[in-house]
Amino acid sequence: MKSRRWQAGIGYALWFVAMLPSPANAQLPSLDRPPWLGYFTAFSNNRFQFGVSTQGKITLRAMGGNDALVSKSLQIPVEIFVEEIRPDAKPIVKHVKPETLTSLQPATTKLTQAVIHGKVTGDTAFEISLEQDRGRISLGGRLLNQGTRSKNPLRFSLRVGFPAAYPRLDPNDLVASKALQKKIQRDRVILTSTDGRRQTLTFDQAFDPTTKNLTPPSAAPANPVVTTTLSVESGAYHGKKFHFGTSANATITLASTNRAALHKGFSILWAPDPAKDLEGKARLTLEVK
Q1: SS (H, E, C) 41-66
Q2: pLDDT at residue 285 tops 90
């Protein structure tokens, strides 16, 4: 009888150990309650929600009245990726491998600070740092090694993607087009450079990405400051305004697909200078007001 109990105990112990995640397959811990099922860390207030899923997908959502989302279709993804810069200047994008993501911090809905380690395709290792202070989110990252498959320089990058602001209004339909023009007449993107230059782009404008790269000058690494800002104002988000900034030794760039009008969607690209930001101190900041 004792032998059977002993064998059962050993069997249970072996099963329990087998069920534990091995270091090679470790994953981010997960929250287990709505609306954050499957998320590792999150923050929310009456203006926005910010969350990082266990798959490494970052999402920004504007809040409307009564603690409800402005729109499920207007969620704003923040993508982590690595660029391999080829001699012809056309980058090769390397995406995050979700199964490699790990963190020493526990899952939480009250983000203050977190560091996530992981790899992208090609096995290049990276880390991303996240901070939240009084509703202000800061993100930054760096590469920990070059991996084994990249012959060209690599760069850690973030992409904030704004979807089409009014996807149900067809600009080719006369009635819908008039309604669209009325809605976007006050929608705009405002860019401010380090020398005080201010550029305002309306949502009906076709966008030329070659002329809108605002790069802050180098500053002492010990005293990084936000030197360039980009703001997005659109009625689609019920009066919420999005403010983005970059510290020194990083660039922030506005981009759109096929030089389309901004109401059709656009991206904000951020990347630190690998040669100047060796310790990964550069930050992209975002606020929703």
Answers
A1: EEEECCCEEEEEECCCCEEEEEECCC
A2: yes
Give the DSSP per-residue string, 216-273: PPP--TTS--EEEEEEEE-GGGTT-EEEEEEETTEEEEEE-GGG-BGGG-EEEEEEE-
Mean pLDDT of the chain: 84
**Element of type H or E holding 179:** helix 174-184
- For residue 33, the tally of other CB atoms under 10 A from its CB is 8
Neighbours of 219 (CB within 10 A): 15
Q: Residue 137 in contact with residue 45, Cβ under 8 Å? A: no
Laid out side by side, the sheet with 284-288 consists of 113-119, 125-133, 136-143, 284-288, 241-247, 226-233, 188-192, 198-202
Give the residue, 51 or 65, on which the prediction is more confident: 51
Closest-CA residue to 269 (of 192, 162, 170, 114): 162
**Contacts of residue 110, Cβ cutoff 8 Å, sequence gap at least 6:** 43
Residues paired with residue 22 on neighbouring β-strands, in sequence order? none
Question: Residue holding tokens 């109990």?
Answer: 5
CA distance 81 to 94: 6
79 bridge partner residues: 159
Tokens of residue 245, six digits: 């900034």
CB 147 within 8 A of CB 125: yes
pLDDT band at 237 (very low <50, low <70, confident <90, very high): very high
Q: In whole angstroms, what is the distance from residue 160 CA to residue 171 CA?
A: 24
Tell me: pLDDT of 144 over 60: yes
Distances (CA, A) of 111 to 27, 49, 67: 18, 11, 19
What digits encode the pLDDT tens for the residues 164-204? 999 988 877 878 889 999 999 999 999 888 777 788 999 99
> CA dihedral in degrees (119, 58, 288, 184; nearest 10)?
110
